[in-house]
Amino acid sequence: MVEQTVRIDGRRLRLSNLDKVLYPETGTTKGEVIDYYTRIAPRLLPHVQGRPVTRKRWPDGVGTAAEPGEPFFAKALEPGAPAWMPRRPIDHSSGAKDYPLVEDVPALVYLAQVASLELHVPQWRFDAAGARLNPDRIVLDLDPGPGVGLAECAEVARWARAILLDIGLEPSPVTSGSKGIHLYAHLDGRQTSDAVSAVAKELARAIEADHPDLVVSQMSKAARPGKVFIDWSQNNGSKTTIAPYSLRGRAEPTVAAPRTWEELDDPGLRHLLFHEVLERTGDPLAAIDRPEGPLRAYIAKRTAGRTPEPVPEHPHAEAGGEGLPRFVIQEHHASRLHWDVRLERDGVLVSWAVPRGVPPTTGKNSLAVMTEDHPMQYLDFAGEIPRGQYGAGTMTVWDTGTYELEKWRDDEVIATLTGRPDGPLGRVRLALIRTEGSGEKSQWLLHRMKTDAEGRPQGEGPAVVPRADPAPTAAATPSPTSAPATAGDLRPMLATSSTPGLARAAAERWGREWVEMKWDGIRGIATWDGERLRLRSRNGNDLTAAYPELTAVDLGLGAAPAVIDGEIVALDAQGRPSFPLLQKRMNLAQARDIAHEAARTPVHLYLFDVLEADGRDVTGLPLAERREILEHLAADAAAVVVVPPVFDDVEAALAASGRFGLEGIVVKDAGSPYRRGERSDRWLKVKHSRTQEVVIGGIRPGKGNRSGTIGSLLVGVPTADGLQYAGRVGSGFGERTLARLSEVLEPLRTDADPFVGVPAADARDALWVRPDLVGEVEFAEFTPCGILRQARWRGLRPDKDPADVVRED
Predict the structure, then answer these.
(1) Of 69, 71, 74, 72, nearest in space to 23 by CA
(2) Range of the domain at 226
(3) How confident is the model at residue 1 (pLDDT cuts 50, 70, 90)?
(4) Would the CA dihedral through 777, 783, 785, 790 be positive or negative?
(5) Are 683 and 700 found together in one domain?
(6) Any idea which of 160-169, 263-272, 293-302, 493-502 has the lowest mean pLDDT?
């Protein structure tokens, strides 16, 4: 046995039998395996660092397809392992075992030397002190059963991706190198392994419910022929998954290879061999296990060599320079022209994309969307980013210079920028105010402020309050247009469904683009008596007791009475409206339950219109004037009251709404009066995904893992001929949701079929219920027969009456 001692990154290793063949069918030797792991290390290590490694070893090689070799699992490090090899103990019933950590190239080379071909890791890491952290990623293992292959796994992967995107997770695929596909998505580390496993299980069950002919989520192998098994169990804290870029112990040296979504569309999709992976550049999985540092998101989106942009090797900030901090504004002709405003801060360029550029006057604001931090080398970058790369298009330096900082907070930045002597910017005082979200993709307003030369006294704050629409300099005094409405006339004005093109055309006819975000909450009419608020839903239900954080305190809306239109909204951890979260509050009746859930799931009141102010009915005034009154009313309101901004660009607002995961936008005529209880075409709603209110009329009992509960709901939409059957809804339900639905539907059981046109196959085992309850579903389209395709449950709508439900075409 020939041995040699090598030094790698300061570590001494003894290597032997480098010409030993480990893959007989391809003649691949141990030396080639070591070479592979050495060269792939920059891409592999981020996915295994900090994670205990379980190995499959083939000391005698993998054998052939006809006569495969026998591997053995290795958990604890063997006694002869180098002393410098990092390790962490994990308790077992037989005692603690020291698992290896693979933190660098020498560790990888050592494991390859002892024929550890496959490296398996959990979805969690150790912290610096050796304590187990919560998982930082979720994985779905798509395992094809007999009769199906990678093409079917790719189809299931696309279905899973759509659901993961809906819940704010961006998945990345890995062809496993064995049979199927793994899907990974990054997590923020706040959920336990058990909680993540529960989410993964529900995802698998939801996909199975939508596609029972191809998908199975049960562990039973007897159920897998002809189907793709979604193995959700690998999120269990004691389970492991093959590490991305690990070799596999198959007849040929295949690799668990991260892929792009475009590759999954290839009809010839197959597993990759190790030499093919080495020929690839970049890491499609970089965003999942990205190294810590302010530039990690920037690096994950770019591939060095494929873009002329600077791509640092590490995500760390640079040391600060001397003198005033610098800025650059770049004109970016990407899929749509915009300007990128970048300010030097803590060794990086904090960046915003501004579709309309720096406002030309103090009376106009621009939408700004925070993007990822950029490296300092970007200060003078100009060039052509190739097609197919992130941000493809031409970028030029519009202006650059230094800035004097007045304020830098998480939600507000104020600075005076001084551009080049011959540049277009000149000297300008700007404010950036965060309005929604946090971090990357958060929404801001870019406001041009008055300078000292324009009359702002030195030492004072901004002369105008930055907001999306110019605020009145003094409180607007409403003129009486009619007597106040009666307490029973509190029906809200409703919007008409539209498309982006029609909404833009309407805004052009109206002469002004007035756009509000569509908040995914419960519409509420708020009656303020000068001290307390009363809330009613759009169907007249009293919501006052259900939201004590809005009704049991002084919200600071002034001493005069008012009637205000708005939305009750629950925000998720990223500051985005979440209808599923709000569902936890919508159906509670007991004061103790309400108080308990209010502490866990607080709500805000987003206001967007006013019906009465100081005893006067103002519904006849134009919307723009009512807005001034509303802003005056809420000027000193409590933090739970929000008056969201108004935007003046339909397309930019719609794009921003989509990036932030919002429901859509509402385009309004600034001159329109308020029409109580009417659906008006002067308010146009544009949604990103189609939703439909439906009336529940039946239940199909669950089978398999849903045995004993609801399998699907039978739903309909009211028409002149009766409740027209609209199909079955079988996905989107968690266990708590199913339990709640069973509880509220059981008392409504009846022998009468409430539908018009329900097929015999759907009616065969149906349990009918009185059509008293309204729900909401998300769907792809209506069939010509009026059936909802790919309907997914969103939640009950106790604020809606069945008679109010209309088809959303």
Answers:
(1) 69
(2) 137-239+256-279
(3) low
(4) negative
(5) no
(6) 293-302
Specify whether the CB–CB gap between 712 and 698 falls below 8 A: no
pLDDT higher for 434 or 245? 245
> What is the spatial distance between Cα 462 and Cα 129, in angstroms, rounded to a whole number?
48
Q: Tokens 């389209």 — which residue? A: 781
Q: Which residue has the higher pLDDT, 480 or 795?
A: 795
Q: Is 56 annotated in the active site?
A: no
Q: Residue 410 falls within a domain, yes or no?
A: yes
Residue 178 burial class via C-beta count within 10 angstroms: exposed 0-12, middle 13-18, buried 19 and up = middle
SS3 content of the chain, % helix, strand, coil (to 5): 20, 35, 45
Q: Whole-angstrom Cα distance, residue 18 to residue 15?
A: 7
pLDDT of residue 438: 67
Per-residue pLDDT tens digits for 47-62: 998 899 999 999 999 9
Say which residue the tokens 């040699």 belong to: 4
Domain identity same for 742 and 772: yes
Judge whether residue 447 has pLDDT over 80: yes
**8 Å CB contact between 30 and 247:** no
Kindly report, residue by residue over 415-426, the tens digit of the pLDDT: 999 999 989 999
pLDDT above 70 covers a percentage of the chain that reads 93
Q: Is 27 exposed, middle or buried (0-12, 13-18, 19+ CB in 10 A)?
A: exposed
Residues 125 and 122: their CA atoms lie apart, in Å, by: 8
Print the SS3 string covering 51-103: CECEEEECCCCCECCCCECCCEEECCCCCCCCCCCCEEEEEECCEEEEEEECC
Residue type for 392, please?
A
140: which 2 tokens?
A: 């779905």
C-alpha torsion 517→520→521→525, nearest 10: 30
Both tokens of 686, joined, read 């544009």
Same domain, 543 and 680: yes
Do 518 and 646 lie in a common domain? Answer: yes
Which of 30, 56, 518, 800 is an active site residue?
Answer: 518
Residue 261's nearest CA partner among 243, 284, 238 is: 284
Give the distance between the most distant pair of CA atoms in the chain. Answer: 101
Residues 340-387: tens digit of each pLDDT: 999 999 889 999 999 989 998 887 788 899 999 999 999 999 999 998
